[in-house]
Amino acid sequence: MALIELKQVEKSFAGKKGTIHAVNGVNLAIEAKDVYGIVGYSGAGKSTLVRLLNGLEASTSGQVLVNNEDVAKLQGSALRTFRKKVGMIFQHFNLLWSRTVSENIQLPLELAGVAKDKRQQKAQELLSLVGLDGRGDAYPSQLSGGQKQRVGIARALANDPDILLCDEATSALDPQTTEEVLELLASINQKLGLTIVLITHEMNVIRKICNKVAVMELGKIVEEGSVREVFRHPQQEVTKIFVQQDLEPKADPSALLAEFIKENPTGTLATLHFLENNAGEPVVSQAIRKFPIDISIVYGNIERSTGSSFGTLTVQFTGDSAEIEQAIAFIEAQQVGVEVLHRG
Ligand SMILES: Nc1ncnc2c1ncn2[C@@H]1O[C@H](COP(=O)(O)OP(=O)(O)OP(=O)(O)O)[C@@H](O)[C@H]1O
Ligand SMILES: [Mg+2]
């Protein structure tokens, strides 16, 4: 039994032009300790879906089961206890500006009636966990975006939840800060054994910390699986676009490559596509050891995921042309795609 199960879940809203099926027949299973990513374009229904998971929204039909309990059936103290077990962080942090960092973190504990000294002690521990030691007396306005989100994370963890929901939690942050916040989330997942459900429109966020992913389009989950599988074999058009956007070289290398061929007309230039192979660059060094040739790296964009590499590497082979062809055949046999751009 998965920690979170959705069975034929629908959530509709009455709109001006008729009913909006924000979530439309979703089946989903999220296991304990998963870092489960949900990706999709704006309006796909991602936020509505996560709001069903903490009972902020009630489904129109179908079942939302968390820890084997039907969320729709929870009431009174059972609902309050349940909500404590599900923390949430947001794109714009949702901090109270008139309260210090420590007071923000203590808010859920205050609401739960926890004594002051206990609250303060917990806030200290959480500040340390999120890397904000000594900043408890600062006000949110004195912090950077990344630090604000750390406060949001600490506050979400105040009641020791089992599940953390993240709604576009890094979308307001620059790439470097995003990376740091994602690392923090990954370490919390490991350290506390917390299950994370993360929604985003950025595939690089999924690649960096999720083990599983679901792709949402028009209220439906159109594709799901392990991050590794979905990156290697995206099935749906929308998934292919998301994966491609993330793995494509960030700058256009064609001018660089044309220049390279002009300066080095004798070698063989080829682009290696690492899709199936999780060893990554070792294939190149193996080829150099096996054949009396040289391989130099010209241009590359290898992206790492948890335990795999994806992306492309453009290399130049120099040496005897028959040996080069054999080396290319060897690399292809390692499940690496080889696209020859120029033969010297
Ligand atoms: N309370 C509401 N009342 C009416 N329509 C709503 C409500 N909440 C969401 N919707 C509609 O449901 C659909 C899904 O919205 P949702 O916010 O879940 O999408 P999203 O994937 O989170 O998008 P974004 O990436 O922009 O945050 C949209 O068409 C939206 O307008
Ligand atoms: Mg949203």
TrEMBL record:
- Matches recorded under InterPro entries: AAA+_ATPase (IPR003593), ABC_transporter-like_ATP-bd (IPR003439), ABC_transporter-like_CS (IPR017871), ACT-like_dom_sf (IPR045865), MetN_ABC (IPR041701), MetN_ABC_transporter-like (IPR050086), NIL_domain (IPR018449), P-loop_NTPase (IPR027417)
Q: Which CDD domains match?
A: ABC_MetN_methionine_transporter
Q: State a single Pfam family of this protein.
A: NIL
Please provide the record's keywords in A-Z order. Amino-acid transport, ATP-binding, Cell membrane, Membrane, Nucleotide-binding, Translocase, Transport
Matching entries from SMART domains are given as:
AAA (SM00382), NIL (SM00930)
Give every ABC transporter domain span: 4-243
Alphabetized GO MF terms: ATP binding
Name assigned to this protein: Methionine ABC transporter ATP-binding protein
Q: Which organism is the protein's source?
A: Enterococcus viikkiensis
